[in-house]
Amino acid sequence: MKVGIMGGTFDPVHYGHLLAAEECRRRLDIDKIIFVPTGEPPHKSGRKITPAEDRYAMTLLATAGVLEYSVSRTEVDRKELTHTVDTLREFLDTGIKPEDLFFITGLDAMLSITSWFDYELLPELCTLVTVPRPGYSIKNIDKLPEIIKQNLKVIEIPQFAISSTEIRERARDGRGIRFLVPHLVEIYIESAGLYKDL
Ligand code: ATP
Ligand code: MG
Asked: What mean pLDDT is predicted for residues 134-155?
Protein backbone atom coordinates (compact mmCIF):
# COMPACT_ATOMS: atom_id res chain seq x y z
CA MET A 1 0.00 0.00 0.00
CA LYS A 2 1.36 3.43 -0.96
CA VAL A 3 1.01 6.10 1.70
CA GLY A 4 1.43 9.87 1.30
CA ILE A 5 2.21 12.04 4.30
CA MET A 6 1.09 15.66 4.18
CA GLY A 7 2.48 17.59 7.12
CA GLY A 8 1.62 21.14 8.04
CA THR A 9 0.61 23.61 10.68
CA PHE A 10 -2.83 23.67 9.06
CA ASP A 11 -3.73 26.92 10.82
CA PRO A 12 -6.19 26.60 9.15
CA VAL A 13 -6.23 23.82 6.57
CA HIS A 14 -7.33 25.19 3.16
CA TYR A 15 -8.01 24.10 -0.41
CA GLY A 16 -4.34 24.58 -1.37
CA HIS A 17 -3.42 21.75 1.00
CA LEU A 18 -6.27 19.53 -0.14
CA LEU A 19 -5.63 20.01 -3.84
CA ALA A 20 -1.90 19.37 -3.43
CA ALA A 21 -2.58 16.13 -1.56
CA GLU A 22 -5.25 14.97 -3.98
CA GLU A 23 -3.20 15.63 -7.13
CA CYS A 24 -0.22 13.78 -5.69
CA ARG A 25 -2.49 10.90 -4.69
CA ARG A 26 -3.87 10.55 -8.21
CA ARG A 27 -0.62 11.05 -10.08
CA LEU A 28 1.47 8.73 -7.90
CA ASP A 29 -1.27 6.18 -7.40
CA ILE A 30 -1.13 6.63 -3.64
CA ASP A 31 -3.71 4.62 -1.70
CA LYS A 32 -3.88 6.67 1.45
CA ILE A 33 -3.01 10.24 2.38
CA ILE A 34 -2.32 10.94 6.03
CA PHE A 35 -2.50 14.57 7.11
CA VAL A 36 -0.20 15.26 10.06
CA PRO A 37 -0.89 18.54 11.87
CA THR A 38 2.11 19.78 13.86
CA GLY A 39 2.00 19.82 17.65
CA GLU A 40 2.30 22.86 19.89
CA PRO A 41 5.65 24.52 19.27
CA PRO A 42 7.71 24.28 22.46
CA HIS A 43 9.36 27.66 21.99
CA LYS A 44 7.43 30.86 22.47
CA SER A 45 8.95 32.82 19.61
CA GLY A 46 7.12 34.02 16.52
CA ARG A 47 3.37 34.27 16.11
CA LYS A 48 0.96 32.55 18.44
CA ILE A 49 -0.14 29.32 16.79
CA THR A 50 -3.71 28.11 17.28
CA PRO A 51 -4.00 25.23 19.80
CA ALA A 52 -3.18 21.89 18.22
CA GLU A 53 -6.61 20.48 19.08
CA ASP A 54 -8.34 23.18 17.02
CA ARG A 55 -6.00 22.64 14.05
CA TYR A 56 -6.49 18.88 14.35
CA ALA A 57 -10.29 19.29 14.50
CA MET A 58 -10.31 21.51 11.41
CA THR A 59 -8.16 19.01 9.51
CA LEU A 60 -10.61 16.25 10.45
CA LEU A 61 -13.55 18.34 9.26
CA ALA A 62 -11.78 19.13 5.97
CA THR A 63 -11.05 15.48 5.18
CA ALA A 64 -14.12 13.76 6.67
CA GLY A 65 -15.90 11.55 4.20
CA VAL A 66 -12.92 11.13 1.87
CA LEU A 67 -12.11 7.45 2.18
CA GLU A 68 -8.49 7.82 1.09
CA TYR A 69 -7.71 10.50 3.69
CA SER A 70 -7.01 10.30 7.37
CA VAL A 71 -5.55 12.58 10.02
CA SER A 72 -2.81 11.50 12.41
CA ARG A 73 -2.50 12.71 16.00
CA THR A 74 1.12 11.67 16.27
CA GLU A 75 2.65 15.17 16.34
CA VAL A 76 -0.32 16.70 18.18
CA ASP A 77 0.11 14.17 21.00
CA ARG A 78 3.90 14.33 21.24
CA LYS A 79 5.03 16.57 24.05
CA GLU A 80 8.58 17.08 22.89
CA LEU A 81 9.75 18.88 19.74
CA THR A 82 8.93 16.83 16.66
CA HIS A 83 10.95 16.39 13.50
CA THR A 84 9.81 15.06 10.16
CA VAL A 85 12.38 12.25 10.30
CA ASP A 86 10.86 10.96 13.58
CA THR A 87 7.34 11.11 12.20
CA LEU A 88 8.36 9.23 9.04
CA ARG A 89 10.16 6.58 11.13
CA GLU A 90 7.01 6.15 13.16
CA PHE A 91 5.02 5.39 10.01
CA LEU A 92 7.74 3.02 8.79
CA ASP A 93 7.51 1.21 12.13
CA THR A 94 3.90 0.34 11.31
CA GLY A 95 5.18 -1.79 8.43
CA ILE A 96 5.10 0.64 5.49
CA LYS A 97 8.18 0.21 3.28
CA PRO A 98 10.29 3.30 2.47
CA GLU A 99 9.59 2.81 -1.26
CA ASP A 100 5.85 3.05 -0.50
CA LEU A 101 6.11 6.16 1.65
CA PHE A 102 5.79 9.63 0.08
CA PHE A 103 6.31 12.90 1.89
CA ILE A 104 4.42 15.72 0.19
CA THR A 105 5.27 19.41 0.54
CA GLY A 106 4.66 22.66 -1.26
CA LEU A 107 7.64 24.19 -3.03
CA ASP A 108 8.21 26.82 -0.30
CA ALA A 109 8.70 24.06 2.26
CA MET A 110 10.90 21.97 -0.05
CA LEU A 111 13.17 24.94 -0.76
CA SER A 112 13.86 25.28 2.97
CA ILE A 113 14.48 21.58 3.52
CA THR A 114 18.17 22.01 4.36
CA SER A 115 17.10 23.74 7.58
CA TRP A 116 15.20 20.65 8.75
CA PHE A 117 16.70 18.40 11.41
CA ASP A 118 18.60 15.48 9.80
CA TYR A 119 17.20 16.38 6.37
CA GLU A 120 19.88 14.33 4.59
CA LEU A 121 18.32 11.17 6.07
CA LEU A 122 14.93 11.84 4.48
CA PRO A 123 15.73 10.16 1.11
CA GLU A 124 16.37 6.86 2.93
CA LEU A 125 12.99 7.03 4.62
CA CYS A 126 10.68 8.07 1.80
CA THR A 127 10.27 9.60 -1.63
CA LEU A 128 10.07 13.37 -1.44
CA VAL A 129 7.30 14.98 -3.45
CA THR A 130 6.78 18.67 -4.04
CA VAL A 131 4.14 20.74 -5.78
CA PRO A 132 4.64 24.25 -7.19
CA ARG A 133 3.34 27.16 -5.17
CA PRO A 134 2.75 30.68 -6.49
CA GLY A 135 5.62 32.99 -5.56
CA TYR A 136 8.29 30.25 -5.57
CA SER A 137 10.38 29.40 -8.63
CA ILE A 138 10.75 25.77 -9.55
CA LYS A 139 14.24 26.62 -10.87
CA ASN A 140 15.45 26.98 -7.29
CA ILE A 141 15.25 23.21 -6.95
CA ASP A 142 18.57 23.16 -8.81
CA LYS A 143 20.22 24.72 -5.76
CA LEU A 144 19.13 21.91 -3.43
CA PRO A 145 21.72 19.31 -2.42
CA GLU A 146 22.19 16.42 -4.86
CA ILE A 147 20.93 13.87 -2.32
CA ILE A 148 17.57 15.66 -2.16
CA LYS A 149 17.26 16.38 -5.88
CA GLN A 150 17.85 12.75 -6.82
CA ASN A 151 15.01 11.65 -4.58
CA LEU A 152 12.53 14.40 -5.47
CA LYS A 153 9.41 14.17 -7.60
CA VAL A 154 7.78 17.38 -8.79
CA ILE A 155 4.04 17.08 -9.43
CA GLU A 156 2.37 19.84 -11.44
CA ILE A 157 -0.97 21.01 -10.02
CA PRO A 158 -3.41 23.85 -10.70
CA GLN A 159 -1.89 26.48 -8.44
CA PHE A 160 -3.91 28.19 -5.73
CA ALA A 161 -2.40 31.45 -4.55
CA ILE A 162 -3.76 31.01 -1.03
CA SER A 163 -2.10 30.58 2.32
CA SER A 164 -3.22 30.05 5.90
CA THR A 165 -1.65 33.43 6.69
CA GLU A 166 -3.98 35.17 4.28
CA ILE A 167 -7.00 33.23 5.53
CA ARG A 168 -6.21 34.19 9.16
CA GLU A 169 -5.98 37.85 8.15
CA ARG A 170 -9.22 37.69 6.22
CA ALA A 171 -10.98 36.03 9.17
CA ARG A 172 -9.62 38.68 11.53
CA ASP A 173 -10.79 41.50 9.26
CA GLY A 174 -14.17 39.93 8.55
CA ARG A 175 -13.33 39.77 4.82
CA GLY A 176 -14.78 36.30 4.36
CA ILE A 177 -13.08 32.97 3.81
CA ARG A 178 -15.84 31.11 1.96
CA PHE A 179 -14.51 28.89 -0.86
CA LEU A 180 -10.95 29.20 0.42
CA VAL A 181 -11.52 26.56 3.09
CA PRO A 182 -14.08 23.74 3.25
CA HIS A 183 -17.49 24.85 4.54
CA LEU A 184 -17.19 23.01 7.87
CA VAL A 185 -13.79 24.61 8.50
CA GLU A 186 -15.31 28.03 7.86
CA ILE A 187 -18.07 27.28 10.38
CA TYR A 188 -15.54 25.98 12.93
CA ILE A 189 -13.44 29.15 12.64
CA GLU A 190 -16.52 31.30 13.15
CA SER A 191 -17.97 29.38 16.06
CA ALA A 192 -14.66 28.97 17.88
CA GLY A 193 -13.90 32.65 17.23
CA LEU A 194 -10.45 31.84 15.83
CA TYR A 195 -8.13 34.54 14.44
CA LYS A 196 -10.06 37.42 16.03
CA ASP A 197 -6.92 38.81 17.66
CA LEU A 198 -3.87 37.84 15.64
P1 ATP B 1 1.17 29.65 6.68
O2 ATP B 1 0.81 30.83 5.81
O3 ATP B 1 0.66 29.74 8.08
O4 ATP B 1 2.63 29.25 6.58
P5 ATP B 1 0.50 27.67 4.68
O6 ATP B 1 -0.64 28.05 3.79
O7 ATP B 1 1.89 27.82 4.13
O8 ATP B 1 0.34 28.41 6.07
P9 ATP B 1 1.28 25.27 6.01
O10 ATP B 1 0.48 24.56 7.03
O11 ATP B 1 2.45 26.09 6.43
O12 ATP B 1 0.25 26.18 5.16
O13 ATP B 1 1.76 24.27 4.87
C14 ATP B 1 1.67 22.88 4.93
C15 ATP B 1 2.17 22.31 3.61
O16 ATP B 1 1.27 22.66 2.55
C17 ATP B 1 3.53 22.86 3.18
O18 ATP B 1 4.25 21.82 2.55
C19 ATP B 1 3.16 23.93 2.18
O20 ATP B 1 4.20 24.17 1.26
C21 ATP B 1 1.95 23.33 1.51
N22 ATP B 1 1.02 24.35 0.97
C23 ATP B 1 0.37 25.29 1.66
N24 ATP B 1 -0.39 26.06 0.85
C25 ATP B 1 -0.19 25.60 -0.40
C26 ATP B 1 -0.69 26.00 -1.69
N27 ATP B 1 -1.52 27.02 -1.84
N28 ATP B 1 -0.26 25.29 -2.78
C29 ATP B 1 0.59 24.26 -2.62
N30 ATP B 1 1.11 23.83 -1.43
C31 ATP B 1 0.72 24.50 -0.34
MG1 MG C 1 3.56 27.72 5.44
From this structure: 97
